[in-house]
């Protein structure tokens, strides 16, 4: 039995699956990750500001124009489509086998594929709000704003994406729901994440179920905890699993 067949077998025998994913989940959809050789943190090394600085709260507050120039140019991918991983997870949810997707991504591709039980640890580009009056704005509004820094049409306040920047805390309710889902899961699928971003990465320690499957192109500090390691592209692997489970 190869790794894909083993994963398919464990999925078929499980009833409370949780998926914990990162940027590598969406690379096959054309969205670059952060830390790989082709990721944002490598390709932007020659910028006057490192990405960690550009994506910090103090930088947003002080240089919203530079932030939005980077954000629109590098972080927004409105035409991206779900890949085999997103689609399989949505199907497993529809079958009642998958109970939660916990994602560090902000791209909304899990919802686009049809998943509804998605816990977005770092927020979403699809939600934006005026920092003063809290009026909602869509991704389309941000993409097509005539101003570099989007302003509220009601009060003139700065509109901020609902994404967690460096120096900001994760939403506590989302964290509690993630811990609850992981604590009651019988199969944990971890995909497309280096597990280096805290406190998000630490969440998987709450899993006490039967099997942990780690799907990531490069080694992580949690490899020794996995019952199965898969390094092939996650979208292709999940597409193969989808075909096996029928």
Automatic annotation (TrEMBL):
Cofactor: Zn(2+)
A Gene Ontology term for the protein's cellular component: cytoplasm
EC main group: transferase
Binding site for NAD(+): 23, 27, 34-35, 104, 106-107, 122, 193-194, 216-217, 234
Cellular location(s): Cytoplasm
E.C. number: 2.3.1.286
Residues where Zn(2+) binds: 130, 133, 152, 155
Domain Deacetylase sirtuin-type: 1-246
Highest taxon of source: Bacteria
HAMAP family for this protein: Sirtuin_ClassU (MF_01968)
Name by which UniProt lists this protein: NAD-dependent protein deacetylase
Taxonomic path: Bacteria, Bacillati, Bacillota, Bacilli, Bacillales
Gene: cobB
